[in-house]
User: What shape does this take?
Amino acid sequence: MTDRSKPADTTLGGRQLKPATLMMGHGYNPKLSEGSLKPPIFLTSTFAFESAAAGKRHFEGITGKRPGGADGLVYGRFNGPDQEILEDRLAIWDGAEESLVFSSGMSAIATLLLTRCDKGDVVVHSGPLYAATETFIAKVLARFGVTYLDFPAGATREQIEALLEQAKAQAAQNGGKLALIYLESPANPTNALVDIEAVAQARDAVLGQDGPPIAIDNTFLGPLWQQPLLHGADVVVYSLTKYVGGHSDLVAGGLSGAKKWMDPIRTLRNVMGTILDPHSSWMLLRSLETVELRMTRAGENAVKVCAFLAAHPKVEGLGYLGMISDPRQQDIFDRHCTGAGSTFSLFIKGGEAESFRFLDALRLAKLAVSLGGTETLASHPAAMTHLSVPDERKAALGITDNLVRISIGIEDPDDLIADFEQALDAV
Assistant: This one.
């Protein structure tokens, strides 16, 4: 378990250690767990206090009477050794003061939004968002008097400033505040990029540096290919199910950012019980040891597969960050991203029928939702993950009937190309 009496050492002889190195032991002291090389799974619901006074101090932190949370281990709904080690390591990848882990990506998003929003408040977000995120903002928060305004992913600073002015006025009219600016970049499923720096500049110009935080769903590129905190974001959001977990065998979510943002979110997580369980946390510790290797291989595979698909006569186009045609999107990519990722949109010539024939003919790639696993996955967003999105909004966001979302895994790339070739033959 973690030794909180000593600060974790992230340097060696004055050299700053890389995240890939720190994933092997950061935040864990084998001496405190019978010398176990790897952290055990702590399957306990509660932890014994060293004294009554210590118990009181822990609860002062948990209830918010004293800032900063508990100083030690208290109860499984609040914290645990596996979760704390995982949070320490996730924070390293994001360059964040702190990270928090949750039972799913949506429980992380819901806890973030509920922490920030009160009656009369306004949320500003980019579009498209993951369908469940849009639903939570537009339908669930609406029940409590929270409204929203949205802008397209490729909006300019001037367009974003105008929308923030509108949101500021709307919040004042409703007796609330502009609670949160929520981004998703790359967007699901189109891979559209948001200019994080432009959003931060617009926020500061309209609302000042004490304005609402900027949160961003970094699932498609994080933590390896994009670090939004370096470009003006305040909170990074993850479905850890995807690349971080990377084996399609768990569901989890995460948030990273400065302590001032994480503390109130942690307090609400304590109340709601949206923390991740010990076993899944332990599995994610395993996954973080290989995340750089897995993501690098998947990215290399995607380069080869997309080169084949781009030249195929039955392919209308690709929404792949390694083949951007729009100059503004390319500029955002060059400033914000260090890799093109391995999840992309494949546009089949035709419509739903042709896309379904392609999907049904796949043999190596699996027909399933999700992404970022060791295996290649393919799905049809318009008919699956984004089915609940109104048709007119899907059309506006470019979620068409001929869009197939592909997530490339770590298989042999030539084998994947052979599978896509025979599946396209069936179209």
Summary: Residues 241 and 249 are 8 Å apart (CA to CA). The mean pLDDT is 94.
